[in-house]
Design goal:
The chain is α+β, with helices and mostly antiparallel strands and about 325 residues long. Helix content is about 20%, strand content about 25%. Strands 4, 5, 6, 7, 8, 9 and 12 form a 7-stranded mixed sheet that branches. The chain has a 3-stranded antiparallel sheet with strand order 3-11-10.
Amino acid sequence: MSTITAAAGYPVAAPFNTNPAYSGTFIPAVWSAKLNVKFYAASVFGDISNTNWEGDISAMGDKVIINTAPTIAVSNYVVGGGVNYQVPTPSTQELNIDKGKYFAFQINDVLEYQAKPNLLDMFSEDAAQQMRIAIDSTVLYNTFTGGAPENKGATAGVKSASFNMGTDAAPVVLTAANVLQKILEMSSILDEQNVPESGRWIVIDPMTRTLLMQSNIAQAYFTGDATSPVRNGLIGMIDRFKVYVSNQLPKGAATAPWISGDGSENSITSPTGVKRRAIIAGHTSAITFASQITKMETVRNPNDFGDFIRSLKVYGYKVIAPQGLVLLIAA
């Protein structure tokens, strides 16, 4: 009987899709049980949106009807003038669960056996992280222009119209000298819309974070923190904003359309030739997000020794309170 020597490998029929490619030379190589750390983009959308209606969905195509409380009129009272009764009618919005993302991969039994790490757990964890990043980038991109018209542009502010938040053709040039002022102006724009003080957030890009670190933000009295807020990730509070740093914010290169953080979206075009980037601030009530993993399946490979693993996640999102969202277009 012939034997397989240490230098030989398992024969592989083409095509055999593995990543990296299977070389057939597992023996005598040793697979370590220790995994190298992998860096992932930060996912912030779960912290800046609400998921109030997430429990109402079950599959792609579901629709959630959202009721908004009506405004009750207050009238002047005149003795003997009678009382007029209002019939309150809630306004409604529809949240469509019309988007989905999936991942699918295969594990060969030979690879599973020879690799000390649990490949199923390792691949599934990576796939879940990649799905979060993809959804985060997509949602940030598709909601960043969803604020009220009074909350963006060169004359932002529903009452004062005195705050320059930049436009596509004339973005605000941010510097260490003015970046804090612009963030405080975004807070004032929300004040003019009567947005609650608690639950406010702002998402900035790494370049803006660098400008903040060069500004007088190190003075703790600006933030309400006992110490300087220069930290990683959630870097603290500015005014009443929780400050998040993300490289998934939309951006626009010179003479190019806006694109999402991962480069997968490019449907919002712009005629400007100025390089620009978006900074978004708001309240957690402004954007609603609902998602659910509807399928997680392991199927035995009928043509080989191994398994197919696949998962489907459906989701939907919508700006339901545009007055609670502010857009700054910066250069």
